[in-house]
Amino acid sequence: MHTIRVAILVGSTLAQLVFMTGCNSHEQPNQNGSVATRLTHISRSKLSDSMTGPIRYLALGDSTGAGVGARDGGYVGRLFKRIVAPRPGSALTNLCVSGATTSDVLRGQLDRGVRADPQLVTLGIGINDIGHSVTLEQFSKNYEAILSRLRSDTKAAILVTNIPDISSAPRIPPAMRTEYHRQIVFFNQKLEEIASLHEVSVFDIYAITHEQLPSHPEFFSEDGFHPSDKGYEFWAEQMWPSIALTIRAD
Fold first, then answer.
1. Class of domain 6-14+39-246
2. pLDDT, position 165
3. Does pLDDT of 213 surpass 80?
4. Would you kindly state where each structural domain of the chain is located, as residue ranges?
5. How far, in Å, CA of 59 to CA of 112, rounded?
6. What's this model's pTM, rounded to 2 decimal places?
7. Mean per-residue pLDDT, 186-213
């Protein structure tokens, strides 16, 4: 994520879309109230039965992966702790940078990430494209290039997150929230279309944040925009079942 200027506030809620192509969509909360895997698209072809040893995990994206707003890291570091438990000896290459856009991933993260020879990749990017008024066409072109490179130059299982709904963030002026939400819907529609074409799994952080953030102000950090430690921990808790499914750690 990035500090968003009020003049260009345009969008931050995600489309809860269903691109399942023969798979089930969001799983419902179980009897204990916890949420199971929340995937809008599941790539069956990249669920590897061979992931039985240490995992080389590559994280690409923005400040949420870097952990801005929290003392103990973002969702990436918290997921890695969960990976290490069933997969001792696993390694993390976290290239997420605060303020990153899809262009930044292409220019500054992708080459190094491919060289890490990952087995698992997570990608969380898009909110800063909206904040910087990147056109939907350019965002789509960049996102397509990122996934094309990952699919052609790695053998990794890829799990992308769609864009979280932070339209209720204290820092977002109420008058801007509707338009901010509308733009994210458009961006997420395109994101999920591209992910589906590349047979890449999509974790639905939008639906989760849309449901939970308005009633959980403690999930925002003191800056009123990024997640807090509690917010990142909640994110990791919700995302872990999808990671566990991907690496066969369930």
1. alpha beta
2. 80
3. no
4. 6-14+39-246
5. 11
6. 0.79
7. 88
